[in-house]
Specification:
The structure is a homodimer of 299-residue chains.
Chain A lengths: L7 H13 L2 H8 L3 H15 L4 E4 L2 E4 L1 H23 L9 E7 L1 H18 L3 E7 L13 E4 L9 E15 H7 L14 E2 L5 H8 L11 E2 L3 H9 L5 E4 H6 L3 E4 L7 E8 L7 H20 L2
Parallel strand pairs in A: 3-4, 3-5, 7-8
Antiparallel strand pairs in A: 1-2, 5-11, 6-9, 6-10, 6-11
Helix pairs in contact in A: 1-2, 1-3, 1-4, 2-3, 5-10
The first copy, chain A, binds a DNA duplex (30 and 30 nucleotides) through helix 2 and helix 3.
Chain lengths: 299, 299
DNA sequence: GAATAGATATACATAAATTTATGACTAAGC
DNA sequence: GCTTAGTCATAAATTTATGTATATCTATTC
């Protein structure tokens, strides 16, 4: 007697429990009830011959094995989501939905008008925007199209280099009127600086070039790039943002022009399989044009 | 009322129908009955709002949309299979199963003794060997470890360069006794040649260097490399095989030494996630050693 | 041309899974 | 200390899905 392969529903419930942390919550998320999810997990444990969770009154905590299996279940879920998206409209028609991922600033400041223009031309296409500063995996189809600030490392992806987004030190006019305009890099030490909280690769690069300060110099610390931008706009102090964004707002002043020397290489990426999907392809081309426009204006 | 997300079982049945070509066959493959699978497909069609198959008395033929969705379902299936493999044994113990993919010759001629040695040391690890000349997708976890003859293009994979497998013209002693030994490359035209049926990239490269013949010159044509090797061993004529294999068999003669000038770059590849799996890691290292040994002997 | 094998589709009884309802337990807030 | 909200576990009720049996249709074979 061969061990019957477990049904895929079991994996779905298993993943939901991992994500939600309890049978009850998983049940709610899936539109099932707690006992059902409980039995699914039990059944999967029996089928795999391994215990997946240690039960406790405040929820289930996953075992080692459960954590190892999680990735695979996530892949299944991503594929299921991608399938749904692909099925959301006939590939030859321009209808359905497309999922785009980008950094938060780009998603909030740059993309909206571009997407609005696209929407005007193709009103049947719904757009999902997933904003995060961790890069989502296009090979896993976490998204259909990605705007990346790093050269794509994964081969086999369709990528287009859009150009370089210039970064620059900015401050609000109101701030400068009160505190004066920094005349040199060293002068910045006397100002309210806006910067990152945790040190990322970008910041280490900047510091290596001596062009940026450590965490302790910042009067306003936030990892979110939009939060920093908001702080600049609110006149909190001096911070870094994309030159293109600064130029849009007449009250923002670009300081110490050209001294930053650090730019964002910008790429548009998608999965090769999606080239045949009309709506994805159209949005890809549209984004390429719109972003190239934006980048050109920032230079 | 939000449209409820379709259950994963439906995808499973959908894929089975695509693979098997009929509801009945899919039912047999899944251990379900034809009406059940039929209902699954119906339900999925309703949930997606698209027709997936056109019914006919001789089976179901997939629609355009069904073919587009297939990839995603395949990804789900691959992930499910990978999950099962991962769950086949605790990651810290050396037990469970590992799936290795390689070309047919390598799998038939080179790997068996290496795997046998591994088995002796780790008797609890089951080994799945998937032999094919199309490269399986490691990112999709179609296999855990791959022996590749081309440099891996997909970034983010763990790859180790093992060296270069030398190829050479070979013939069986019995053939040479009857038909004489070809003295030069041009002389080959007077011999029974063993070669490929369809033209692959490898062959085009060879022909571009003027070191190989077209399809029409071959007296024995087979796309399978093992079949070619078998033909050489049977004394059918002159063909190409790995020097390391020729050297093992005292009756095989390496002809026109060093004139071929075409080699196989060899790589061992695995998914980075699997580094933490003890059994996969051990087999990876063992294969690296064993294959490097084999390659060294072929030079 | 009839018989066969393989396919889908439908009807209905049955088996299986889900929901509902309940109990027991834990942690936090008043 | 008691209430409230959260959890998992269990047993009975019900819905749901499955399997069986049958009809039908179409190529293929004898």
């Amino acid at each position: 007697m061969t061990k019957q392969e477990p049904g895929w529903e079991l994996y779905r419930s298993f993943l939901a429990v991992l994500r939600e942390g309890s049978l009850s919550a998983a049940g709610r998320a899936l539109g099932l009830t707690q006992p059902s999810v409980g039995r699914h997990v039990e059944e999967l444990e029996r089928a795999l011959g391994a215990s997946l969770f240690t039960r406790s009154p405040q929820g289930l905590t996953p075992t080692e094995t459960a954590l190892e299996l999680r990735t695979h279940a996530e892949v299944m879920a991503a594929a299921a989501a991608a399938l749904l998206r692909a099925a959301s409209g006939p590939a030859d028609e321009v209808a359905g939905s497309v999922r785009v991922t980008a950094s938060v600033v780009v998603g909030v400041e740059v993309l909206p008008p571009i997407l609005t223009a696209f929407r005007r031309d193709h009103p049947k296409v719904a757009i999902e925007l997933s904003l995060s500063n961790e890069t989502e995996d296009l090979l896993r189809r976490d998204a259909d199209i990605a705007v990346r600030m790093v050269r794509p490392t994964q081969g086999a992806l369709v990528a287009r280099h859009l150009g370089v987004i210039a970064l620059g030190l900015h401050a609000h006019r109101s701030y400068l009127e009160t505190h004066g305009t920094p005349a040199s890099w060293d002068d910045l030490a006397n100002h309210s600086l806006i910067g990152f909280d945790t040190e990322t690769a970008v910041i280490r690069t900047l510091r290596a070039r001596g062009r940026y300060f450590g965490r302790e110099h910042f009067a306003f610390r936030a990892d979110s790039d939009v939060a920093q931008l908001a702080a600049i706009r609110a006149g909190f102090g001096v911070g870094i943002c994309q030159v293109g964004l600064g130029r849009r707002d007449p009250d923002l002043v670009h300081l110490l022009l050209g001294t930053l020397g650090f730019d964002l290489d910008t790429w548009l990426v998608m999965h090769p399989d999606l080239k045949s999907s009309r709506r994805v392809r159209l949005l890809y081309d549209h984004l390429a044009l719109g972003l190239a426009d934006y980048i050109r204006n920032g230079q």
